[in-house]
Amino acid sequence: MTDRPEKLLLLDSASLYFRAFYGMKESVTARDGTPVNAVRGFLDFVARLTTDHGATRLVCCWDDDWRPEFRVAAIPSYKAHRVANPGVNAEDVPDELTPQVPIIVDVLAALGIARVGSPGFEADDVIGTLATSSTVPTDVVTGDRDLFQVVDDARSVRVLYTAKGGVARAEVIDEAAIETRYSIPGRAYADFSALRGDTSDGLPGVPGVGEKTAASLISLYGSLDGVLAAAEARDPAVRPGIHDKILAARDYLAVAPRVVHVRTDCPLPAYDDRLPAEPADAEALVELADRWNLRSSVNRVLAAFAG
């Protein structure tokens, strides 16, 4: 493992365990009948990603707060459609998945894999903070295109996008891929997303400005600030009706960056992101593997780490 060039993998953990849950049959259970499809699938993803991408460092990034107050205060509709219990701001999660998440937490701890969250912040913010501070080439593994905004060719930060091809055939997103896909500068995804909106996150965008118009505006003016300045100046390069729509949405655009942009400054606990040479708690790992019928998946992770 010491001969590998340094590579950090940042996993959008919830994205991956949801994918595992829906991608593996619910008939995968422990001896007591508890579903463990998400646990098994998540561990198999860790093994596959570590091997395929030559990781020497790994962090499972965690949602300590899936819907942070600072984002909801700015745009109340943020993820509102996913709230199962408004009284406790609880996310709507399948009943069969809920008990599997603590098992994942326990197995990661026994393996000695870094699991990092930050109170009051989403995993996206943890990823943004770690990606911008990393001193080695970094791959972010996610099915969420919001994280395209952390791509940075100069710092060798890419996204391995799993939404279509899964973990095995993840699409490599660099700045050129963003430019090709959206016809915008590779580092302008967040501002483009704020203009366009995103129904999956409850972000309205600017009414009447769809993806193509948002892309053309960002391509022409470079940033959200540039788009607003051009609208206020009534730049003749753009139809007056578009300027009117931008100006009518000025209040939304004033707060949208606070919601759309991932944080790069969230406080993080101490952690060790190096692949563990041996389990942190071998006895606990054996007990968990036997109790939850995880032996084959745990062994795949250990083999991947041995390199």
Can you describe this structure?
The chain has helices spanning 13-23, 37-52, 69-74, 100-111, 123-133, 175-182, 189-196, 211-221, 224-233, 240-248, 250-260, 282-291, 295-306; strands at residues 8-12, 57-61, 83-85, 90-91, 114-116, 138-142, 157-161, 171-173. It is of the alpha/beta class. The chain folds into two domains: 8-175 and 263-306, Rossmann fold, CATH 3.40.50.1010; 189-260, DNA polymerase, domain 1 (Orthogonal Bundle), CATH 1.10.150. The chain has a six-stranded mixed sheet with strand order 5-2-1-6-7-8. Strands 3-4 form a two-stranded antiparallel sheet. Strand 3 and strand 4 form a beta hairpin. Helix 1 (13-23) packs across helix 2 and helix 4 runs antiparallel to helix 12 (282-291). The protein starts with 7 loop residues before the first strand and ends with a helix. The mean pLDDT is 96.
Number of helices: 13
Global geometry: globular
Strand order of the largest sheet: 5-2-1-6-7-8
Rg: 21 Å
Spans of at least 5 consecutive residues whose pLDDT stays below 50 are none
- The tally of domains stands at 2
The count of strands amounts to 8
CATH architecture of the largest domain: 3-Layer(aba) Sandwich
Average pLDDT = 96
Q: Order of SSEs, N→C?
A: EHHEHEEHEHEEEHHHHHHHH
Name given to the CATH homologous superfamily of the largest domain: 5'-nuclease
